[in-house]
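User: Hey, quick favor. My workstation is busy. Could you predict this chain's structure for me?
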Amino acid sequence: MVKSELLFAINKKFPDLPLSDVELALNCILNQMINTLVQGERIEIRGFGRFVLRQRPPRIARNPKTGEAVSLPTKVGVHFKPGKEISDRVDAKRDQCRITE
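Assistant: No problem, here it is.
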């Protein structure tokens, strides 16, 4: 869902709140999540999932155009693991998803 779609969905459920307040609240939540991950901590939202940092070791890769070997440094990435509730809901609707195996 695009951020603006999320804002309108929240605003639809809470019509008394101005859209600017909804956007401010959403931005505060997202910024706090980013700051938590930057500090190296994990985020867990019960029923939704968890965000953790994973470190990838340095490796040698190849430039697809030239075939030249390129040294890639260690990289830290954010990994999301969905919770049981969200996994069950998505799995129940798998026929409606546009995912092919």
